[in-house]
Structure formats: C-alpha cells, structure tokens
Amino acid sequence: MQATTPIFYRSLTGGxxxxxxxxxxxxxxxxxxxxxxxxLTEKHEVPAQYAxxxxxxxxxxxxxxxxxxxxxxxxxxxxQRDRAxxxxxxxxxxxxxxxxxxxxxxxxxxxxxxxxx
Length: 117
What we know:
With 117 residues, the protein is mainly alpha-helical. It has one domain (21-116). The protein contains four helices and two strands; from the N terminus they run E-E-H-H-H-H. It has helices at residues 24-42, 48-77, 87-99, 103-116, and strands spanning 7-10, 16-19. The radius of gyration is 16 Å and the shape is globular.
C-alpha cells in the first residue's frame, strides 16, 4: 500500500520528520469502525481493551467528514480563497474537542504510526 510508505521531510524550523500519506489515518480509523460493527453484530459489544480506540476512530471519522463537507462547499463557492489558512484545522480541532480531549487525536496518530511501520 502506497499510503504506508514513510514520507521524510524537513519541518518549517529545519528539523527532520517522518510522516505518512494523509489518507492513511481515515483508513486506519475505518478498520477499527468495521471491527466495532463486526463485534456489535456477533457479540453485541466491543472488547473493553479496544473501546477507547473505537471511540477515537469514530470521533476522528465524523470530524473529518464534517471538515470535508465544509471544504467541498468552500471550494464550490470559491470561499477557500477568503478563509483563514488554518480555518479547517481549527474547525476539526473544535469538533474533536467537543467529544474528547486532544489526547484522543494523539492516540489515533499513534495507531496510524504503528500500522504504517
């Protein structure tokens, strides 16, 4: 899978970094959501050790969907030229903060990193 190929880059401050294709994170989240659906169908509950991961995946996917719709509408109307550079990032952060603390996003990023290696 191309998305799991590490991308090496230099940060704005000159430091070295490694990342992955942005499409990997929602794909990883989707794996956990399918796992949840399967568990609920077969066992009627998600195993406790996965509950926090499934919750994080659900919040992340809903947040990305929310931001994606906003971005599509902004693009269709031309508003993306007028909005602040980090407006979509702020919208996603606000959406996620409503449900869970920022630690949830860090956990989702950790999951993506583990699955990418």
